[in-house]
Structure formats: C-alpha cells, structure tokens
C-alpha cells in the first residue's frame, strides 16, 4: 500500500512529473485531504515550464473533472491513475483526484457527511483557481457515486447547475445494494458470512450510511450520465437500469442513441467489470458526446 510520502509523488505511479501536482485540500471542517491535480494534455510542457497563471487559465478555459473513487485504498490504485490519465487526455481536462478523509494521506475519519464535505473541498479548490460551475464535471465510481450525488444535490439546492454528473457503477441505495449483493456474483448475501470476514468487513463499511442515490437523482438539476458494465458482479447492472427508469420526470435515453438535449443518459458496456468501466475505452468519448452540441438520434429503450 502506498504510504503518505509516496502519494506526494504522483510520478511514482506512472503520471507525468510535468503534468501532475500534489495538492492539499482544506475542508470546511478543517480536515486536510491528499489529492492530485492532473493538467489537460494540451498544457503539458516537457520541460515542466508551466506557470501558475497558465494553470489558472486552464480552469477558466477547460473542463475540470472532480473524481471521487471507490471504497478501498487510495487515488494511487492503478485503475484510478488510469482514470485520471484518460480524462485529462480524452477530455483535455483538469482532473482533481482526491482521497477521502481517513484514506491515504488525508486526515480524519470517514462518514457520509464528511465525504460530502470532501467533494465540496475539491469543488471549492477548482472554483478558487478560476473554474466556473458550467465547466465542472463530478465523476464518481462505486462508493464515489453516492458521494457525488450527495454533493450534486447540495449544489442544486443552492441553484447551482454544473456541466455534468457522471456515475460509474452506481448503486440505488445501500439498502438495495445489500438486498442484491451476491458473493462472487453467485451466492446471495444473506447466507452465513462467518467464514468470510473480509466480505463482512467490506459490507459493514456501508451499513452506517444511507447513500440514497435514487432519491438524490430526483433533486439534481444538472445533467446525469450513468455508466455500468453488464458483467459487474459487485454492484449488479440492475441498479443502473433501476436508476434510469426511475427518472420519469426527465428525458432519458441510451447514450448511443440520444442527443445533447437529454438531461439523463445511460451507457451499458459489456466487459468493464466493476472497476474498469470508469477508465476503459468508451466512457470518456461518451461523456464528450453527452456534453456536446452535436446531434444524435434519440431512442429511449427503457
């Protein structure tokens, strides 16, 4: 596992030393979070000669992706590094990849309220550097989908609409997750777990918290894109389809067929599993299509 000293050096995990900077974020309740700021590809200089003024300007002129990762480990996991690299490359975006309180080199102890404040800290950092809400994308994966929908709901309650909320492998709610969870994709959760302490410990991390994504989506005014792989054995794809269907007050469509006027979209992939769906080929391109003004035929399949 990466130590706090190693986390301060993103180049140790394969990110360009001229493209990625270690940044400490401050939360409103005085926690300190470890994060990386990955620059847009178009700004990268091979000699590292990028000024603070140029960096501030990219926040004004380029998208900013705030990435909230899954339930274990840190921003240095290989898939999370790949996500930051893909988003900065394909979207030519700033990427803020942060560790929640109690994770990695971040202070504090995790809680649902605390993790929402952590997402706010990343958002506040982007705003302080010159970003505007219409250029900010909240990207969550797994647990992170609950975090970003909590925060996006808070923004909507303040009348703030951002560029997009992107949910990779979301769950409807913790309750629904426990009802549908199957061990190894085969055995229902409510079989004896005494002989499987690691799975039990993993599930107990959710039990204290609600993370009601389905309820949040009804209160989010920003566009929302959901992505899920049909071979996800940790969070079944039915969660995303249920979320998709529940938004009856919005215009929905499967993303391969929808247009940019749609406020909600669904992308189903075949081989992304639980983790790779967020960085594998297709999601970034679909995000661009979802947020663009180019026309595509609309056909709501669900």
Please tell me how large the radius of gyration is.
18 Å
Beta-sheet strand percentage? 15-25%
Anisotropy-based shape: globular
Helix content: 25-40%
* CATH architecture descriptor: 3-Layer(aba) Sandwich
Distance between the termini: 42 Å
Number of helices: 10
Order of helices and strands: HEEHEHEHEHEHEEHHEHEH
CATH topology: Rossmann fold
* Average pLDDT level: 83
Number of separate domains: 1
User: Could you describe the largest sheet, including whether it forms a barrel?
Assistant: 8 strands, mixed
Task: Tell me what you see in this structure.
The chain has helices at 4-7, 52-61, 78-90, 112-128, 143-157, 174-180, 197-207, 213-217, 238-246, 283-291; strands at residues 20-26, 32-38, 64-68, 94-98, 136-141, 164-168, 182-183, 187-188, 224-229, 264-269. The protein starts with a helix and ends in an 11-residue tail after the last helix. Strand 5 (136-141), helix 5 and strand 6 form a beta-alpha-beta unit. It has an 8-stranded mixed sheet with strand order 1-2-4-3-5-6-9-10, sandwiched between helices. It has a single domain, classed as Alpha/Beta hydrolase fold, catalytic domain (Rossmann fold, 3-Layer(aba) Sandwich), CATH 3.40.50. It contains 10 helices and 10 strands. With 302 residues, it is α/β, with parallel strands linked by helices. Helix 4 (112-128) packs across helix 5. Pfam families: Abhydrolase_1. One of its GO terms (cellular component) is endoplasmic reticulum membrane. InterPro entries: AB_hydrolase_1, AB_hydrolase_fold.
């Amino acid at each position: 596992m990466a130590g706090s000293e190693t986390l301060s050096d993103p180049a140790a995990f394969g990110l360009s030393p001229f493209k990625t900077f270690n940044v400490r974020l401050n939360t409103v309740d005085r926690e300190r979070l470890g994060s990386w700021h990955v620059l847009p590809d178009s700004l990268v200089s091979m000699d590292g000669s990028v000024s603070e003024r140029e960096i501030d300007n990219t926040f004004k002129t380029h998208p900013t992706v705030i990435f909230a990762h899954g339930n274990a480990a840190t921003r240095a996991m290989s898939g999370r590094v790949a996500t930051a690299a893909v988003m900065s490359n394909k979207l030519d975006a700033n990427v803020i990849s942060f560790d929640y309180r109690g994770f990695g080199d971040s202070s504090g102890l995790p809680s649902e309220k605390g993790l929402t404040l952590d997402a706010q800290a990343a958002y506040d950092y982007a705003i302080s550097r010159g970003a505007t809400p219409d250029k900010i994308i909240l990207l969550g994966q797994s647990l992170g989908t609950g975090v970003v929908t909590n925060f996006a709901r808070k923004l909507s309650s303040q009348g703030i609409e951002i560029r997009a909320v992107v949910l990779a492998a979301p769950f409807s709610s913790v309750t629904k997750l426990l009802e549908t969870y199957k061990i190894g994709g085969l055995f229902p959760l409510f079989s004896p777990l005494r002989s499987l302490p690691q799975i039990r410990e993993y599930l107990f991390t959710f039990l204290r918290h609600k993370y009601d994504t389905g309820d949040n989506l009804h209160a989010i005014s920003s566009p929302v894109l959901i992505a899920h792989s049909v071979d996800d054995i940790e969070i079944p794809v039915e969660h995303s389809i249920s979320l998709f269907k529940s938004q009856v007050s919005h215009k929905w469509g499967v993303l391969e067929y929808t247009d940019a006027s749609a406020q909600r979209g669904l992308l189903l992939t075949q081989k992304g599993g639980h983790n790779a769906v967020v960085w594998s080929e297709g999601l970034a391109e679909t995000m661009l299509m979802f947020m663009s003004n180019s026309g595509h035929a609309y056909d709501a399949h669900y």
